[in-house]
Amino acid sequence: MQGNFGLRHVILTIALALVPAPAFAIDEALLPRNLSPWGMFLGADVIVKTVMVGLAVASLVTWTVWLAKSIELRRKSKLAVERTRALEGKMKLAEAAERTGDAHDAVAQLIQSCAKEAELSGGIVDDGLQERVALRLERVEAAMSRQIARGTGVLATIGATAPFVGLFGTVWGIMNSFIGISESHTTSLAVVAPGIAEALLATALGLVAAIPAVVIYNQLVRGIANYRALLGDASAQLMLLVSRQRDHREFRLSRAAE
Fold it and tell me: Where is the MotA/TolQ/ExbB proton channel domain (predicted)?
């Protein structure tokens, strides 16, 4: 009996030794040590890494455009308000053009264009001059509006495409996770979780790039609209100035005829 017991003990020991190791031991070996955002980036597939880097660059471009355009809008709007207020006083067109000098800001361009048309008209202030001045002012306003809006289109592009780029990285990462499941012959969540986490990080970066781009774009659009309104006020003030000079000239001619 003791011999049979010893034989059974030996057979049981050998059988236990041949049993495969538990799945969680493999899972712990496959599970990465660092699941921080940087660790997940380093462990991601090259395609997912490329998507993440592209989204990070897009986010950097968004904030750079915001800073540059905010400073530009604030500076040009302040100068436009100052020049428009100066036109509200008792100032002639020639004097306004002389004050602007060689300045290249929007209102200065409006004044210089108006003065140039008056000069080309030989000092004749009539309805034809007013129409030509209005056309010139409209062209200058359009050019200055295009100039101030330059660079904002990239924000609309980033806001529209960044979520889909992030989604592409997510789909690619999840696809690689399922491939990893097939190769490891296990369905344990510990094996799948790192790849899914890396994939979802791409989606998160897509939203981080897209949401500020949309908000900043809308903010800049409102600022540009306000700037265009300032240019419209300056153009209206110049038209009033030309009309005032015409009326003053006609008044002097009528007094001379008397």
Answer: 120-226
